[in-house]
Amino acid sequence: MKQPFNLCIFPFLTLLAFMFILITNYAVVTSPQGAASIYLKSALSGNIGYGNPQKAHNSISFAGLEPGDIILGAYPDCAYGYYSHAALYIGAGEIIEGYADLGITVRSIEHFREYPKICLLRVEADQAVKLAAVDYARLQVNELFYPVAFKSGERAWNCSKIMWKAYQRQGLDFDNTRDLWVPPDVFYNSPHVTVIREWGQL
Prior knowledge:
The protein has 202 residues and is α+β, with helices and mostly antiparallel strands. The protein has six helices and eight strands. Helix 4 packs across helix 5. The termini are far apart.
């Protein structure tokens, strides 16, 4: 009897946690512009995850990037907005980003060439703020990745939460929706950034 009980208790606890989140954050979760509504509409349309990876080799120039800049990449049919992935440029051709199989990691920016749509953003802040954000993100390297990590807490991350938190701790908050999650589109739509350059289309 113990094993069937264990098999049932965890889905039940997950359902209870979901109901608690829904009830205590009803206005945010049900907002038509909120991440939860976007995820649900996408799922009902058959779009799940970061989209449909396609072989591409964009020719965008990475020249002139500064530590603290933000890189966005998009695949078609992304479940949580237009952009599928986000990363923080830390200098010397390297970025900090998050992946399910790698956790929070440092990689070459060159792998962003696989996206059919890419955008480079400059954060409008003092250099000291941007460098402090980079330093904070570096401290999270090798930490746990979770695709739907809530904004609260610093134990689990996804690609966009790590950047949002890095800047939020410096007093710069990209999220004006007060949502529970931070999709990559938040950065593109923020008044705190300017577009350096874009390449491609979906």
